[in-house]
Model the fold of this input.
Amino acid sequence: KQSRLTKKMKNANLSGKIFKVGNGYISDLDSCKSFSEIEQLFLSSLSDPHEQASVRFHMQKQWREMFSSFCVSIGQALDADAWLSSVEEMEKRESVAKDAARMARRKLMMGIALNQDTQNPDQGVFIERGTTHE
Done:
């Protein structure tokens, strides 16, 4: 005798949905921006930074593969070395900008901390200056 699950699986239409590519791109600029924002919100929703970086990497890889396949399919020549170099340069600029923002934030926080330390001179740990024992 079959179980209920086996019966459901046997009668299920598992391949009922078919995806068909229309024009292959989003033609409306506002829709493109919206899609990009949704993609960014999805990545931001991942709490683990390593998982976020991994998903971002694989999504970018997928987009690059789709783009290069599209170029090949329409007969557009693609200089892969120059393209990858430009992608790397863009990623390097983004990294430098993030590092600069991080350093500026760190500098600001250190300034705030030092300012608070000078306003509260009696609180904290002090090491007395005295003679050294040798």
Remarks:
- The mean pLDDT is 80.
- The radius of gyration is 28 Å.
- Helices lie at 4-11, 29-45, 49-73, 80-119.
- The first helix runs from residue 4 to 11.
